[in-house]
Amino acid sequence: MSRDRITRRKFVAGTTGVTLSAMIVPRHVLGGVGYTAPSDTVNFALVGCGGQGKTNAGELVTGGQNLVALCDVDFGYVDREVANLTRQRGPGGGRPGGQGAPQMTEEQMQRLQQMMEERRAQAVKLQEAYGKAARHADFRRMFETQKDIDAVVIATPDHLHAVIAKTAMELGKHVYCEKPLTWSIHEARVLRETAARTKVKTQMGNMGHSSEGAALVNEWVQAGVIGPVREVHVWTNRPLGFWPQGVPRPGKPPVVADAPAGGNNFGTEWNARLVNRTLAAAMDGNYPKPEGLNWDLFLGPGPEVEYHPIYHPFNWRGWLDWGTGAIGDMAAHLIDHPYWALGLTYPTSVEATYTPWGVDVKNKPVSYPMGSHIVYHFAARGSQPPVKLTWFDGGLMPERPELLPDNVQLDPGGGVIFYGEKGILVHGTYAANPKLYPQSLMEVAAKVPKTYFRVEKSGEGQFAQAKHRMNWIHAIKGKEEATCPFDYASRLTETMLLGVVAMKAGQSKKIIYDGEKGRITNLTDANQYLQREYRKGWTL
């Protein structure tokens, strides 16, 4: 190995005591303008490449990082998705606007057009990077055979996050993992311990954590603009219209009801149970596994389930075997902000009510309910009072606050309401567009100092987006701290997933949680839902 390579590896791994300035070779010495010194570039692998993974990789490749490896169980799907980046109308696909589009000024239109052209150029660059990177089906084989990987981006279904992230960290690789961090609470604790022990740089992929709105929410709440907060409402419309939940497992159960001979009571025969059995049978068709899909690797540590297109791609999110439902998907973008701003720790109790689960032929739950209502209680923290946080999903929404002006509507897509003694704070998903009511509080907020770190952004004005992935790269290089490292992300994930555990524990059954020990103290049988039994051949 060359001396340059050793220097670079030590730098990227963060294991050397030599100062940062001594390690970076000046550009003019090596190659002048346009030359990227080895220490400026992180070689990263992408595991899960067709969905959110390509968005993550796009920011990193545009930011000058080197995509050296792709790992996926279905490259047919990946190739179609990546090819579509420049085929779809959107980035560079014509003048934005049209019927139903929000009205923009000419300057805003020009900025949006420029942004779309830039995204198209970035898409072309990403396609080129995908074409050059080595390809692997099994992440374990990738790590065994490819030694130039410094860092790993994980964008697989939830159930694979922990095994891939832990393997990478044990090998000294820095890890960016999509939300939710893990499928189970036990896995979240394992990843937190592993990250602390290996000292690699980590980040969870809840990009709203790096947003300007998140910083403002923290600053306003912690400056006491709305006073002490005792209650928070959080909601999302997921899974409504996004992926299926509350549906039965595809199968071949009997369809004919046990009706009396010659009976005409068809209305009573067609009850909910018969409808579910009929739906299950209707979905059970002859669906051959797509050529090139490694279904066994997709299943990973989850149970044996036959392939069906209702599971892959993307729709795995609503199934217990692989996903964590609406709260696992969206709470990292919503509960994150009150959890952070209020300095919350583990909840002391959680209680859930919900619509019916989707079940299999044995009436065992297999897909998450279409809607849920989950109540978390958090203890007082120093001078801060206890907090009751209520979660709504599936199109359910909280009661409209009295302080909200008549001409202001809550976003049905999702949002958060902080109830303080002096007023309320309302924001959208990802902490977007935070507002204070009564509106006079906005004048108070304008005087609050900006004390939270601002992550670099791409775009301008309403099109600006924080470079959450590049913040992780800068952390690897010792230039910044990652905004959402596993130490924080694992605790947030554990809190989110306690909502899933409460649903599994049973309708309206309050679980009492000892966060320090990681145990449910009242319904001891519910502790089985804190982790899962891995399929044979898989360990954490």
Beginning-to-end CA distance, first to last residue: 32 Å
Uncertain ranges: 1-36, 89-101
- Using DSSP, what is the number of strands? 19
Rounded mean pLDDT is 88
Based on secondary structure, the structural category is alpha/beta
| CA gyration radius, whole angstroms | 25 Å
Treating each run of at least 4 consecutive H or I residues as one helix, how many helices? 18
Biggest sheet record: 9 strands, mixed
Overall 3D shape: globular
Helix content: 25-40%
Q: Indicate the proportion of strand residues.
A: 15-25%
Going across the biggest sheet, name each strand in turn.
Answer: 15-14-13-7-12-11-8-18-19
Give your account of this protein's structure:
- The protein is α/β, with parallel strands linked by helices and 540 residues long.
- Helix content is 33%, strand content 15%.
- It has helices at 3-13, 20-23, 27-30, 52-62, 75-83, 106-132, 139-145, 161-170, 185-198, 212-222, 266-269, 272-283, 295-299, 325-334, 336-341, 441-445, 468-476, 486-505; strands at 43-47, 66-71, 134-136, 151-154, 174-177, 202-204, 229-236, 349-354, 358-359, 365-367, 372-378, 387-392, 414-420, 424-428, 435-437, 457-458, 465-466, 511-514, 519-520.
- A nine-stranded mixed β-sheet has the order 15-14-13-7-12-11-8-18-19.
- The protein starts with a helix and ends in a 20-residue tail after the last strand.
- 42% of the residues are buried.
